[in-house]
Amino acid sequence: MLPRGRPRALGAAALLLLLLLIGFFLFGGDVECERGERGGERRGPGSFPCPLTPRVSADGRPRGAAAVDGDPSADRGGRNRSDCVPPRPPLPKCELLHVAIVCAGHNSSRDLVTLVKSVLFYRKNPLHFHLVTDAMARNILEMLFHTWMVPAVRVSFYDAEELKPQVSWIPNKHYSGLYGLMKLVLPAALPPELARVIVLDTDVTFASDIAELWALFAHFSDEQVIGLVENQSDWYLGNLWRNHRPWPALGRGFNTGVILLRLDRLRQAGWGQMWKLTATRELLTLPATSLADQDIFNAVIKEHPGLVQPLPCVWNVQLSDHTLAERCYSEASDLKVIHWNSPKKLRVKNKHVEYFRNLYLTFLEYDGNLLRRELFGCPSPPAAEAEQVQRALAQLDEEDACFEFRQQRLTVHRVHVTFLPHEPPPPRPHDVTLVAQLSMDRLQMLEALCRHWPGPMSLALYLTDAEAQQFLRFVEASAVLSARQNVAYHVVYREGPLYPVNQLRNVALAQALTPYVFLSDIDFLPAYSLYDDLRASIEQLKLGSERRAALVVPAFETLHYRFSFPSSKAEVLALLDSGLLYTFRYHEWPQGHAPTDYARWREAQTPYRVQWAADYEPYVVVPRDCPRYDPRFVGFGWNKVAHIVELDAQEYELLVLPEAFTIHLPHGPSLDISRFRSSPTYRDCLQAVKDEFHQDLSRRYGAAALKYLTALRQPRSPA
Amino acid sequence: MLPRGRPRALGAAALLLLLLLIGFFLFGGDVECERGERGGERRGPGSFPCPLTPRVSADGRPRGAAAVDGDPSADRGGRNRSDCVPPRPPLPKCELLHVAIVCAGHNSSRDLVTLVKSVLFYRKNPLHFHLVTDAMARNILEMLFHTWMVPAVRVSFYDAEELKPQVSWIPNKHYSGLYGLMKLVLPAALPPELARVIVLDTDVTFASDIAELWALFAHFSDEQVIGLVENQSDWYLGNLWRNHRPWPALGRGFNTGVILLRLDRLRQAGWGQMWKLTATRELLTLPATSLADQDIFNAVIKEHPGLVQPLPCVWNVQLSDHTLAERCYSEASDLKVIHWNSPKKLRVKNKHVEYFRNLYLTFLEYDGNLLRRELFGCPSPPAAEAEQVQRALAQLDEEDACFEFRQQRLTVHRVHVTFLPHEPPPPRPHDVTLVAQLSMDRLQMLEALCRHWPGPMSLALYLTDAEAQQFLRFVEASAVLSARQNVAYHVVYREGPLYPVNQLRNVALAQALTPYVFLSDIDFLPAYSLYDDLRASIEQLKLGSERRAALVVPAFETLHYRFSFPSSKAEVLALLDSGLLYTFRYHEWPQGHAPTDYARWREAQTPYRVQWAADYEPYVVVPRDCPRYDPRFVGFGWNKVAHIVELDAQEYELLVLPEAFTIHLPHGPSLDISRFRSSPTYRDCLQAVKDEFHQDLSRRYGAAALKYLTALRQPRSPA
């Protein structure tokens, strides 16, 4: 309960602290403070300065916490920071720690992932993340955590939209907009039974166990409700330029990148009223906040200094040129949390920034799958889906020659949808999304694809965490790709030896937002006019509710490296005739596309129906709610055929479009394909999987499935 | 000083220890042992059990250390392991820690790198590595550490060959051979002024700061000379099979994967004699060691139990199925060091192994460049080369549009030569090594190249640490590549935005071991007979000391994806005539190879001389001591031209071989090339670099360089 009479309360607080300090230094021994020095030795690993010890400044500069630690005698002559270290914080074993983060948009979502990776790397406690998100971030993070399945991690989402009214009245010049004000409403927004929470900005990276930070709650006096590290820039000193008027703060003020909140006490103290009162008053004379909620926190603290427990600077090392920050990390041997609040570009000359950069890069590129490990000594029940997967995996026979196939099929890949900023396309009645999947070695195709297809795309990329960063840089460096807002890239994180081609297609398909989809492959460039033509055809043919059909886009290939893309059907025919173009896989596997009846296509001027035949795998346009691809087909071989079988079994008409075409460009075999084809068990396992697929078909379609079984049994030349 | 009269000394030691133990538990407080429990709370981060507390075994099983900790009263009723924790070890700030590792061969060298990465990740102290190596490991590791330039790391090498005589008399059944016995001779081999050292096996991974391990030296009594963790298998209990006779040991014995050695005391105690005596005696009844030096250490310790200080099990968690190891890590919350001494394959069902695997993979794939950071608070002078590089980098102008070019040129890349097992080719007078460079996207070419060229190859691969592991698996999975012993792969670790093509070529060139080299590119497949033909031509033409020349292998290209490789010059001519083959880059940049005079080549039956012309960049065979490639050319463009200019300036004759040919296969543009060509400053910077190159030429060759300058200035169509 915060005292009403402030000066008296401050005095009482100061006296209490004085007594505590005296108590520490007289009787402390190993009860509160641990001496880090023995016989001249100066440093022990893991020691860090007592938060209550005022920092020794050579210039006697007043510190933000001066009003709290008012007693200079606490700084006993000559004792320096390494003298006094808090006791190793005694947390209850496996205590659940709570972390709250405000996160909006695609870019912050990526930053949050890096932050979470760094937290997970060092943590030994179960964690509960409370994420205040906009719709985009929620979409991404919900899917990500769901597929990540990290043991002993729980995630709750809070809708930022609902909280906006509470802060929308505050003018904010900071680029974070309304989201930058939301930490203020956390005591109200978070569950009332939640007493304590650590609040983090997304641009923070951990270099230590978050339990050590949580343990600092133990140092709060009864009045203290918020733990913060001093701000390491001169902003709040107000002398940066001539008319610089920052919000009020104690000395340098505090930085809100890392916050310890006693939610229970804040609520009891009427926090909601408190900050609104302060903000309203300040806004009478200041036009807006410049640093979002940090300004308001500092103004409140200026009024009520007893609220704040200053934290050691190592818990929020703010990247800046300022000597204050450098003093923090030149004295401390342990940096705990790095805060990337500097816009400076990192050049090789600044060696401290090199250290930070390396730490950040470590987690940026760190394989998130490696963080799925159990907590030792804190067994927690696995999530339901995780348990299901584990059970299924446990049933696999390790000696089975096709073990890898079956294991890959059961693998739940971590998925980060809309990895890059993406604008959902405006709703249009016959709109089509191009759906495809790829990995690093096909990034080259993206620019060409963008030139050929102006419409929306949903692309699944099978990447490692490190490759995802390369991909990010690739898109940022490409003018063509950066300009496109309607191409959605979904990263599916690599795991397992075999290429989960149909799982990738299903991710891209599920993320498509238009009523129709064009199911393509990454090595094909569609006709320049295809996007428009397809929408016209969809409308004419009344594809969808009135007509269950799959529109076939005839597929061709060129073997020539230098190839002038045809701009009309007539040019396609000319190229076919001159041998510069072939129907797709004409030489090795004509049955893949022969049922398209290219001879008829030459002459056709209206769409015509074709019949399903064995091994037919055309590229089709279907309504988005079509059957999914069958994920039992991993690696390569038959993964599209099975889908067309499914469409045919569900009585989709196969209609070939007379003006449409798509052309395959030559490319070297991918590493994944080579690896797959060199596997000795490939053929046998593919056959086993096909058989299982057909058994499924029989179960689901009864007699109608007979046609496919018969076709399967017919001998034909191998792929 | 070890007592001469052993029983009496043992008694004295035990009494002393007893007194010390009593002292600890009565007066210790925070002087020696820190209580980890307060009010029911059981665990604090970083706590670990006192090494001197006998481990509580429910079954009363005797422990290896029984003879040392003979006093059961040390185990005060009901006190369990978490009660007693040693004090945070107070190391002098920035104390230099010494680590010794025995490492022989290519595979152990890779393991050592992973171990070192894990040590560097957590360390805060300067380190000095003492590496006992064979010639291959020395070759690799010397270059690696030299190019790695990690601050505050020093490396000394000790020749295993010289130490072999000291152990070669010991029969050893373990696969490690003589190298597995060398830890025994470390007190003699390491510098006499070195008092303490940590000794590690290469299959060990750190999960903590090595300073904590070093600090355990403080727990040695005056007699103790060696710190070890108990062996976590039943091997030394001797009951594994019917006639199983292990070497003598105390109980379960100790595992020598992690050792603390007091070298000073060992030498004083006459360690050399001591172990030899013991080994000789045991070898009277045992045929050989089974576990190499571990057997001998255990036998000595059995005789002199007072020598050993048992270390907590967390410092050497040995992967095995045994309950003993599981008890170690199910009770401890902190595993410090993982020892991969299990041959078991890792399947998804064993969740503890999953934890270990993830830790191991973390460091296996960790970007070693990120470990180049300075130590905070322990400034150390950079190595001379590092300082030079830093100074040069500091002189660069960040605002220079070509900053990236210049920075890339100065970048010292970490290099791991002979990444995979490699047999140096036997010396042959006219032998030629094919030299090329590549990155991940060209791995496909390797098998084809191996089929075309049976001779030695030296290939530089530009990879990240993670890609290097993929590459390793790729080669292991390929029958063709695994079979070849004369292909040397050198990994140059990626760093910087631009492709350091000439630095890569120089690495491959420097590592070639034959008197001649064929300077090729990865996308070219040489004629099947080229290897034999070149050696014949080299001999005939007396290439080398008698004749300074570069033998030109004419270059062609096919644009066709399906291409039947010609097996003779006649077939090449036929393909040229039918338009399935072209001279290389015939369409876009004919001047690159036109001076080869293909018209003359058609008819030629003997080698003929050609003249240098602007932009000429043929593929040549030269003596190995030819000029290096100029590293200022990064990215793409002119990097081979400059080299040919250099050859010509040094008056190498250009002789075209009449029967030789090499053919370029089509491939998509690499990510690196796309990135490069999309850079807006590319052309300007390339021109700037060319100009500097020519200025250099003028300086070195005077008037003779005029010809190149003139050629440079002539207008011609751009690439």
UniProtKB/TrEMBL annotation, chains A, B:
Q: Which GO terms describe its cellular component?
A: Golgi membrane
The species is Neomonachus schauinslandi
Matching InterPro entries, A to Z? Glyco_trans_8, Nucleotide-diphossugar_trans, Xyl/GlcA_transferase
Chemical reaction(s) catalysed: 3-O-{beta-D-GlcA-(1->[3)-alpha-D-Xyl-(1->3)-beta-D-GlcA-(1->](n)-4)-beta-D-Xyl-(1->4)-Rib-ol-P-Rib-ol-P-3-beta-D-GalNAc-(1->3)-beta-D-GlcNAc-(1->4)-O-6-P-alpha-D-Man}-L-Thr-[protein] + UDP-alpha-D-xylose = 3-O-{(1->[3)-alpha-D-Xyl-(1->3)-beta-D-GlcA-(1->](n+1)-4)-beta-D-Xyl-(1->4)-Rib-ol-P-Rib-ol-P-3-beta-D-GalNAc-(1->3)-beta-D-GlcNAc-(1->4)-O-6-P-alpha-D-Man}-L-Thr-[protein] + UDP + H(+); 3-O-[beta-D-GlcA-(1->3)-beta-D-Xyl-(1->4)-Rib-ol-P-Rib-ol-P-3-beta-D-GalNAc-(1->3)-beta-D-GlcNAc-(1->4)-(O-6-P-alpha-D-Man)]-Thr-[protein] + UDP-alpha-D-xylose = 3-O-[alpha-D-Xyl-(1->3)-beta-D-GlcA-(1->4)-beta-D-Xyl-(1->4)-Rib-ol-P-Rib-ol-P-3-beta-D-GalNAc-(1->3)-beta-D-GlcNAc-(1->4)-(O-6-P-alpha-D-Man)]-Thr-[protein] + UDP + H(+); 3-O-{(1->[3)-alpha-D-Xyl-(1->3)-beta-D-GlcA-(1->](n)-4)-beta-D-Xyl-(1->4)-Rib-ol-P-Rib-ol-P-3-beta-D-GalNAc-(1->3)-beta-D-GlcNAc-(1->4)-O-6-P-alpha-D-Man}-L-Thr-[protein] + UDP-alpha-D-glucuronate = 3-O-{beta-D-GlcA-(1->[3)-alpha-D-Xyl-(1->3)-beta-D-GlcA-(1->](n)-4)-beta-D-Xyl-(1->4)-Rib-ol-P-Rib-ol-P-3-beta-D-GalNAc-(1->3)-beta-D-GlcNAc-(1->4)-O-6-P-alpha-D-Man}-L-Thr-[protein] + UDP + H(+)
Entry annotated with the keyword Metal-binding:
yes
Cell compartment(s), UniProt = Golgi apparatus membrane
Question: How does the record classify its membrane topology?
Answer: Single-pass type II membrane protein
Question: What family is reported?
Answer: In the N-terminal section; belongs to the glycosyltransferase 8 family.
Q: Where is this region: Disordered?
A: 36-86
Q: Which GO terms describe its molecular function?
A: glucuronosyltransferase activity; metal ion binding; xylosyltransferase activity
Record bears the keyword Ribosomal protein: no
Its name, as the record gives it, is LARGE xylosyl- and glucuronyltransferase 2 isoform X5
The record's listing under SUPFAM superfamilies reads:
Nucleotide-diphospho-sugar transferases
Which function does this protein serve?
Answer: Bifunctional glycosyltransferase with both alpha-1,3-xylosyltransferase and beta-1,3-glucuronyltransferase activities involved in the maturation of alpha-dystroglycan (DAG1) by glycosylation leading to DAG1 binding to laminin G-like domain-containing extracellular proteins with high affinity and in a phosphorylated-O-mannosyl trisaccharide dependent manner. Elongates the glucuronyl-beta-1,4-xylose-beta disaccharide primer structure by adding repeating units [-3-Xylose-alpha-1,3-GlcA-beta-1-] to produce a heteropolysaccharide. Supports the maturation of DAG1 more effectively than LARGE1.
Report biased composition (Basic and acidic residues) as residue ranges.
Answer: 73-82
Enumerate the cofactors the protein uses: Mn(2+)
UniProt keywords, alphabetically: Glycoprotein, Glycosyltransferase, Golgi apparatus, Manganese, Membrane, Metal-binding, Multifunctional enzyme, Signal, Signal-anchor, Transferase, Transmembrane, Transmembrane helix
Superkingdom of origin organism? Eukaryota
What pathway, per the record?
Answer: Protein modification; protein glycosylation
Which positions make up the signal peptide?
A: 1-33
Q: Which GO terms describe its biological process?
A: protein O-linked glycosylation via mannose
